[in-house]
Amino acid sequence: MTVVERLVPDVFWELFLQVVPERPVRAQGGGRRRHGDREVLAAIVYVVMTECVWRDLPPSFGVSGTTAHRRFTEWSQAEVWGQLQHLTLEDPHRQGDVMWSRCAIGALRTRAAVVS
């Protein structure tokens, strides 16, 4: 199991896919390829759960702290964390599956409130 899969288990990833906004369409030419959402989400969860600063994000994630912070802000403004929390509370049959995810989402919402 990779670090991404540990920080963003399949059940958490499936919920995230239900609420994440569509990727913006990029203008032709220039720029870099956008990093994958799951890798960026794992980096964000790592920063939030360890309370490290964005610039100290380990390079093993393959995502810069700047990219992770930018996407965190984008998703915070889209209210992704509140929607995720709502989904985890909605289905009592999956409560055991999403317990860790609830902790992560709570931390994400708290950090997003500080940013706003």
From TrEMBL:
Pfam families with a match to the protein in the record: DUF4096
InterPro entries: IS402-like_dom (IPR025161), Transposase_6_like (IPR052909)
Domain Insertion element IS402-like: residue ranges: 9-84
Domain of life: Bacteria
Name assigned to this protein: Putative transposase of IS4/5 family
Species, as recorded: Actinacidiphila guanduensis
